[in-house]
Design goal:
Elements (H helix, E strand, L loop, with lengths): L3 E5 L3 H7 L7 E4 L12 E4 L4 H11 L2 E6 L6 H12 L13 E5 L12 E4 L1 H9 L4 E5 L16 E6 L9 E5 L6 H11 L3 E5 L8 H9 L3 E4 L9 E3 L2 H13 L2
EC number: 1.3.1.106
GO molecular function, one term: precorrin-6A reductase activity
Enzyme class: oxidoreductase
Length: about 250
């Protein structure tokens, strides 16, 4: 039996890769957002139980390659995947080769002339950076939802994330899914009268328009630094190169 591919996803780039996988391979999602229904490969939703649980899954399912195409800030699953692939295969399935660990490492955005980025680390750094401001747009995903009851009296937050959530007098939650256009971002910024933006340095083009609009409007951006990620045996910046490598692996195993 050929070694199978486990694609760890959840991003738009990962979905593009999943569309190129055949029925013997597996696309894994954490469970947030919509589950695609038009893929030839299997779709698995939910966690694995840490590195140990993932290692057992790799052995049981005869996985020969784990391709990490998770979000650049999903440091925990990346660390677990790297650890699981380093675990020797169990003797009961000796025909399965050592599991390879590859990763899509999307290039981060770089500040452009006119940008006002304030680099921060973690939630405490975000709160410190936005303290002088009153109209805050968060584009971090779900994390700010856990802090809506702690919005300072002088601030109003707008939180953009994938899923709907009730706001309150000092917070509004906007459920929206990229890609986002310049025109759409301009309309959002003008309606919200924001004076600061909070962002992860996700890279890619799907959500970059907010940075261009912040630059146009002279707005500061509290930019969260990327977490450290484990090294992979092969790392890709281009989705096209990653898809080609997956096809080559599948054809030769």
């Amino acid at each position: 039996m050929s070694a199978r591919i486990l694609l760890l996803g959840g991003t738009g780039d990962a979905l593009r890769m999943a569309r190129a996988l055949g029925p013997e391979h597996v696309y894994s999602l954490a469970g947030l957002g919509r589950v695609p229904g038009d893929l030839a490969c299997s779709v698995r939703v939910g966690g694995f139980g840490g590195a140990e649980g993932l290692a057992r899954y790799l052995a049981d399912e005869r996985i020969g390659l784990v391709f990490d195409a998770t979000h650049p800030y999903a440091a925990r699953i990346s660390a677990n995947a790297a650890r699981a692939c380093a675990v020797p295969q169990v003797p009961q399935v000796p025909q399965v080769p050592q599991v390879q660990y590859w990763a899509l490492r999307r290039a981060p955005w770089q500040p452009q002339p006119g940008d006002d980025w304030r680099m921060v680390d973690g939630w405490a750094g975000v709160i410190e950076a936005i303290a002088p401001f009153s109209r805050v747009l968060f584009t971090l995903g779900r994390e700010p939802l856990a802090h809506l009851d702690a919005v300072p009296a002088h601030q109003h937050w707008t939180v953009r994330c994938l899923d709907a959530h009730a706001g309150h007098a000092r917070a509004r939650v906007v459920d929206a899914r990229g890609p986002f256009t310049l025109e759409g971002e301009r309309a959002l910024f003008e309606a919200g009268c924001f004076d600061v933006i909070v962002s992860k340095n996700s890279g890619g083009g799907a959500t970059e328009a907010k940075l261009a609009v912040a630059r146009e409007m002279g707005l500061p951006v509290a930019m969260m630094r990327r977490p450290a990620l484990p090294p992979a045996q092969r790392e890709f910046v281009s989705v096209q190169d990653a898809i080609a490598a997956l096809a080559t692996f599948s054809a030769h195993t």
